[in-house]
Amino acid sequence: MKNNQHVGYRHIFGPVPSRRLGISLGVDLVPHKTCTLNCVYCECGRTDNLALKRKEYISINSITAELGDFLSKDPDLDFITFSGSGEPTLHSGMGEIIAFIKTSHPGRKVALLTNGTLFYNPHMSAEILDLDLVKVSLDAVSEKVFYSINRPHRGLIISDIIKGLISLRKKFANQFWVEVFLVPGFNDSQSELKKIRNVLSLIHPDRIQLNTLDRPGTEQWVKPVDKKRLTEIAAYLYDADIIKEFDTDRYSPVYMDGFHERLLATIVRRPCTAEDISRSLGMDVNEVRRHLWTLTENGEISKKEMPRGVFFIKRS
Ligand code: SF4
Predict the structure, then answer these.
(1) Residue 182 Cα, ligand 1 centroid: separation in angstroms?
(2) How far is CA 276 from the centre of its chain?
(3) Which of 141, 171, 228, 307 is most buried by its number of CB atoms within 10 A?
(4) Which residues touch 99 (CB under 8 Å, ≥6 apart)?
(5) Which residue of 29, 39, 151, 222 sits with most ligand 1 atoms within 8 Å of its CB, as the best mutation to test the pocket?
(6) pTM of this prediction?
(7) What angle do CA 119, 116, 90 make, to 5 degrees?
């Protein structure tokens, strides 16, 4: 594999490791913060373009060209994952891009990380049936809590979204996971958790994951749920897994050329500590700190202290 393979890619990023997906190549299908929601905890900042209309936000050809180029080098990957800093299902060409990967690179597994808000549209859900894994977010069942945490496009109704998820699950034969992000004071009450539990029992996901804030979110007032309560809630929600990002013993290879670009591409999609990046890229933490110091001095990134450590954030 050539060392400069990452230079010039605009819509694919990584590969990054995760405990559940292994080594995953990210694909960003929409411009930064184009989303159907504006979640208070979003680690990519406020939604600039609160959208509901599906369209070809980025040309299908430019995405498939980058994918084709990267995959032609036969990289060691476990998944190609539609994710990034917005809602991937807003891209109207998603079905076509999935078909491209499945046809041109039949051995590759493809995953989608989504807020699940568009699956009430049967045409949209039909496009993703060939995926190997779908992970949807579901933080609320009550309209009031949905509006408070997820601050959706006004055209969205939570009861329709939930019907869409239940219906998709019935048709989707591969791995279907649900993630619940807990925001204390909003969706951690017993009454809301009971509603979420009921909906989970109707969806029957293969896996349930619980998440809480551990890196800078959009709103400063969002706090993490404490560990004890998180464990209690995980037990109540059918023994959900508690997410710990970057917890992996597998590293993606280090590509030194274009390293600053890769570092920025990672940070713009997710604030990280030096230790997160070190684990993610399999690189000595002091070496990572040196690069981060340069980027900070250049004014390209800034720092923020959090309980888990110092996070680096892309400057806008
Ligand atoms: S967390 Fe996901 S769904 Fe929520 S605003 Fe951010 S990108 Fe959109």
Answers:
(1) 14
(2) 16
(3) 141
(4) 130
(5) 39
(6) 0.83
(7) 75
Q: Is 33 left (phi over 0), alpha (psi -120 to 50) or beta?
A: left
Protein fold of 272-316: Arc Repressor Mutant, subunit A (1.10.10)
| Ligand 1 atom at minimum distance from 181 CA | 1
What is the per-residue pLDDT across 86-142, written as a single tens digit (0 to 9) for each? Answer: 999 999 999 999 999 999 999 999 999 999 999 999 999 999 999 999 999 999 999
In whole numbers, what is the pLDDT of the chain averaged over residues?
Answer: 88
Report pLDDT for 6: 45
Q: Are 41 and 213 in contact (CB under 8 A)?
A: yes
Ligand 1 geometric centre to CA of 195 (Å): 22
- The whole-number average pLDDT for the span 62-71 is 95
Q: Which CATH superfamily is domain 12-253 in?
A: Aldolase class I (3.20.20.70)
Q: Taking each helix axis as running N to C, give the angle between helix 285-297 and helix 274-281, from 0 to 180 degrees, rounded to the nearest 10.
A: 120
Give the model's pLDDT for residue 244.
Answer: 67
Q: What is the pLDDT of residue 265?
A: 77
Measured CA angle at 144 (ends 142, 147), to 5 deg: 110
Give residue 36's Cα distance to chain centre.
Answer: 14
Looking at residue 12, its amino acid is I
Mutation probe of ligand 1 site: the residue of 115, 137, 149 with most atoms within 8 A of C-beta: 115
Tokens describing residue 64: 């498939």
Instruction: Select from 111, 115, 119, 90 the least CA-distant residue to 180.
Output: 115
Q: Of 270, 39, 292, which Cα lies nearest the Cα of 152?
A: 39
Per-residue pLDDT at 257 exceeds 70: no
Q: How confident is the model at residue 236 (pLDDT cuts 50, 70, 90)?
A: very high
Domain boundaries, the chain: 12-253, 272-316
